[in-house]
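2024-03-11 09:14:02 INFO queue: dequeued item ABC-type quaternary amine transporter, len=345
2024-03-11 09:14:02 INFO validating residues
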Amino acid sequence: MPDITTNTGVLTSLASQQGGVDIVLDRITKQYPGQSTPAVEDFSMRIEPGELVMFVGPSGCGKTTTMKMINRIIEPSSGSIRINGDDVLSLDGNELRRHIGYVIQQIGLFPHFTIAENIAVVPKLLGWSKARTAARVEELLNTVQLDPGIFADRYPRQLSGGQQQRVGVARALAADPPVMLMDEPFGATDPITREKLQAEFLRLQADIGKTIIFVTHDFEEAIRMGDRIAVLSERSRIEQFDTPARILANPANEYVRSFIGEGAALKRLALIPVSGATVGSPDSAAPAATIDEETSLREALDLLVLTGAPRINVTRGGAIVGSIDQAAISAALGATAPARRAEGE
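2024-03-11 09:14:37 INFO prediction written
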């Protein structure tokens, strides 16, 4: 293990980094004393700047352990971790964690702090002025769609679970970190709240472009949110690391297929917008219900089934521009099936 220094130059670089950074894990291993097998063994991965990578796998496979080694909540036994080319194992762990956002399922808000005080924790540790901190708190509350005038002075117990999760995300973003680690952040919420939080976070990520590692046990969540998905088995062995579309179309082995489960084609349809299909002419006999061209083909298929109509009209900006039927949806599914990547690509 390298000698630990503060290395303020690297930390300053991280703090000032706009958008995301690349993360390289090279042969990371975690061996706990008294255990015969490692929790994580010889794990290597490169994550591109601004990429949202999902870790999915069964309980005990080491996905959370792997993620926590990046900000050194857990110290690796061997291997190297580099962020933007800098070795994080040479940094002071406490200082490092102040420059990496971290969101957990249990949220971890301080119950006796107001919402504003919870969000301000890291900026205060970094020595921000009161004015700068207050402005950042207000900005972030607006970003996660919580009115500062209503929520800033409330306490966590006065918020719903979904609202507390939004505050947890805001707190992780407070110091504008280039890296965010998210450990099943929406797992404790009900399905409707979870879907809303996922949509809000994807909207937010489109604007902020952070490099994000997101741990989940929910493959549907991984498909919906990830730029790439790492399907992990025991000791964080990577069974497949690829885009959602490629994994659904070409699972690497039976283990990956077991994660996909039934309905792979329907799951793939959720990744393809209506504009990805060949749209026919507007149909005057189609039902009043329409589908926007940016909506998924899965939703278009649902609408066709619900209405029982042979075709539904497609809109762009509210204006009808064409129509679509089940044959067009099936053709789009076949046309977008990606070829299997070459080994090592």
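2024-03-11 09:14:37 INFO annotate: The first helix runs from residue 8 to 16.
2024-03-11 09:14:38 INFO item closed
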